[in-house]
Specification:
The protein is an alpha/beta fold. The protein folds into two domains: 6-80 and 177-257, HAD superfamily/HAD-like (Rossmann fold), CATH 3.40.50.1000; 86-173, Putative mannosyl-3-phosphoglycerate phosphatase, domain 2 (Threonyl-tRNA Synthetase, Chain A, domain 2, 2-Layer Sandwich), CATH 3.30.980.20. The protein is built from ten helices and eleven strands. Helix 1 runs parallel beside helix 10 (242-257) and helix 5 runs antiparallel to helix 6. Bound molecules: magnesium ion. Magnesium ion (MG) binds at residues 11, 13-15, 199-200.
């Protein structure tokens, strides 16, 4: 692939998409300018490939890879997401090797089914069905003690599976990270200057790894704690929220690069 002048990595909910309406309309001027300049925009989210693929197509970004399931995998360029994958099957197999008394304390998306996922996440049934189409990671709810959880995670670690806690869910994967996927995707484009945008602590590694990062305000959550790079200005905060803030930040970068 030809080396673009810039590469943009962006979170979705609360960053490129409005926290409440999920609209990206306010970012249209910056998105249009990037398209005109041939700058790829790489979507990076905790969403599944099945959730991201239609959105990526709607944004006119289907020619570019996307980072899915919080960095656990990459959705390759194309119109549609694969329905199943060998990594997820291997993860479910590893889970079933865990001794039964511990295994039964974890209820994953693959155990619960779409209705249970809808209840657990608050998603509408159709959205829950897309969130259930996992390829790389398994979120679930832990119902045992902390001591049992330590044992459960040790049994998984012996099989190469790691766990990450965030909000209500304990998410299992083979350990890939958003930062690792960023590096891999950047290499495909001959590693140009990287800009990242995000609104929440799960975007931290992406913001810190980029050459320039923007924290987009999200009035619906606690402010992001200070990040490495804010003192030097490598990471900046944008006061406007969601796609409006995204638009401002990206137009600033476009002006700085004279594109
Ligand atoms: Mg977000």
């Amino acid at each position: 692939m030809p080396r673009p002048v810039l590469l943009i990595f962006t979170d979705l909910d609360g960053t490129l998409l409005d926290h409440e309406t999920y609209s990206h309309e306010a970012a249209a001027p910056a998105l249009e300018a990037l398209r005109g300049a041939g700058v790829p925009v790489i979507l990076a989210s905790s969403k599944t490939a099945a959730e991201i693929a239609p959105l990526r197509a709607d944004l006119g970004l289907a020619a570019h890879p996307a980072i899915v399931e919080n960095g656990a995998g990459i959705l390759e360029p194309g119109a549609e997401a694969p329905r199943t994958g060998s990594r997820y099957r291997a993860l479910r197999t590893a889970l079933d090797q865990v001794p039964a008394p511990l295994r039964q304390r974890f209820r994953g998306f693959g155990d619960g089914g779409a209705h249970w996922i809808a209840d657990a996440t608050g998603l509408a049934p159709e959205a829950a069905a897309l969130a259930a189409q996992r390829l790389y990671s398994e979120p679930g709810i832990w119902s045992g003690s902390e001591a049992e959880k330590t044992e459960f995670l040790a049994a998984l670690r012996a099989q190469g599976v790691s766990g990450r806690e965030g909000g209500r869910f304990l998410t299992l994967s083979f350990g890939a990270s958003k930062a690792g996927q960023m590096a891999e995707i950047a290499a495909r484009y001959s590693t140009p200057y990287m800009v990242a945008l995000g609104d929440a602590p799960n975007d931290r590694e992406m913001l810190e790894q980029a050459d320039q990062g923007f924290i987009i305000a999200n009035p619906h959550r606690a402010p992001m704690p200070p990040l490495d790079g804010e003192e030097t200005g490598r990471i900046q905060r944008i006061a406007a929220a969601g796609p409006k803030g995204w638009n401002q930040a990206v137009l600033r970068v476009i002006a700085d690069f004279g594109i």
